[in-house]
Design goal:
The complex is a heterodimer of chains A (86) and B (407).
Chain A (H helix, E strand, L loop, with lengths): L1 H6 L5 E5 L9 H5 L4 E3 L5 E3 L7 H9 L6 E5 L5 E3 L5
Antiparallel strand pairs in A: 1-4, 2-3, 4-5
Chain B lengths: L11 H5 L1 H11 L2 E4 L4 E4 L2 H8 L5 E2 L2 H4 L13 H11 L10 H10 L4 H5 L2 H18 L2 E2 H6 L1 H11 L6 H11 L10 H24 L5 H10 L5 H14 L2 H16 L1 H9 L1 H15 L5 E6 L3 E2 L5 E2 L4 E5 H4 L34 H18 L3 E3 L19 E4 L1
Parallel strand pairs in B: 2-8
Antiparallel strand pairs in B: 1-2, 3-5, 4-10, 5-8, 6-7, 9-10
Helix pairs in contact in B: 5-12, 8-10, 8-19, 11-12, 12-13, 12-14, 13-14, 15-17, 15-19, 17-19
Classes of the chains: A alpha+beta (86), B alpha+beta (407).
Chain lengths: 86, 407
Amino acid sequence: MDYDKERGMARNLKITVDYNRCVGNAMCEQYAPNTFGLNDERQSYVKDPAGDPEEMVIEAATNCPVSAIKVEDADTGEVLFVEENF
Amino acid sequence: MATAINYDLFTHDVVQDPYTYFGRLREEDPVHFNELYEMWFITRYDDLVWLTRHPELFSNAVLKTDPKPPAPAIEESDLGLYEFVRDFFGSFFIQYDRPEHVDMRKVVHHYFNPKAMESWRPLVVDVIHGLLDEAEEKGSMDVMHDLAVPVPLLVIAQMLGMPNRDRPFLRQLSEQLLFIGRGERDRMKPITEAIQELQEYLGPLVVERLDNPGDDLLSVLAHGEKTGVYTRDQVVANAVLLLLAGHETTINLICNGTLSFIRHPDQWNLFKQDPVKLMKPATEECLRYDSPVKTITRIASEDVEMRGGKVLGKEERIRWVISSANRDPEKFPEPEKFEINRYPNLHVAFGSGIHHCLGATLARLEGQEAFRALAERFDSLHLATDNIEYQPSITFRSVKSLPVTWN
């Protein structure tokens, strides 16, 4: 990650929302407003995986109260954030 | 001909078994107007989720907005106290709509995120084992008094940085505040008294945190005053909210869940095979099957036509019923069955939408570790009474006590 940062290149992120968990708390939209939006069900969806810097996306995933957001490196498949609180 | 639906929600049969009453409403009249309380009751899962996901139509500022006198009715001479109580409870961040709500929530939201809460797990485990050691020496326990109350109370008091010696005092005042969900005509008196005592207690603590902030939750909240999000009065009120919500509902989770296990020995035996693996789904099922909170209120911001055609008029009061939604057969297969492996289990015990319970992760963690510890210690638990009595509350699903023995 630091290597990419030094080169000024952002990784491509694969961001997924688990709809068996998402409760529409909408805090992801607060922490990374250009990445997450709300769909017709008022649940989270990824409107642009490159909308915000990686740190903001991780912050949004970390603050999901039901751990519904998973973040991976789209090219290598490396898992960058996943939680399972229940 | 079907019998008429009773409007009094404090009768013994409704308090003891809300599932039959609200289940019947869900089947027969899912958008139901209770004439006694002048209040709508929403009982289907889908309607509840839709309602909570449309905060622009259904306001949380119930106490501040409600043009009607309180329901159930109170003594007329206590209407002044009611104004004081509703001003105080109306300062809780959960009683605000956007945009204020999101700013107020963000001040404390990160404190409760799953990653942050996980760091409290070792303390929770230690506390539970200490309490169960004491119980084992005694040979019996009241799950409520000996486990369910002290665990979350100790944890939230520690988070807020309140001294251990103050816990009995805090518990007593919290119990008085719970009268907000009850029907006694003179209930404003104990509530007012508790608010005043807590304001006196918390005022100086908040000043201390403003002068000399630590990493405790009270400091986090007080920081919201420095950034202009909260007033001083709001800091104090929301500290009370965190204290109260931080333990009262978890008491119910631990008691109701333990009772569910006792009444379903097959699920208890299944759980005992692998408590570490099963404690998470099992806690979700405890939350769904006998939810700690029965109903939550909203007030309509405009006339809203519900599915089925009924119109909820502007400024009309609404209660959505978690207890019936979590047993809606349209959502949950065989909803009356307690199944600790149920998945998916998207219950609404913590509500849904932007007001989804701030402390959900903490409650989950405390429930998980309590059930796990019980399963790891005891072959089987037995009720030491034939008679489980519930508090006469419209809001909380609370047993009065839960005496058990084991072998």
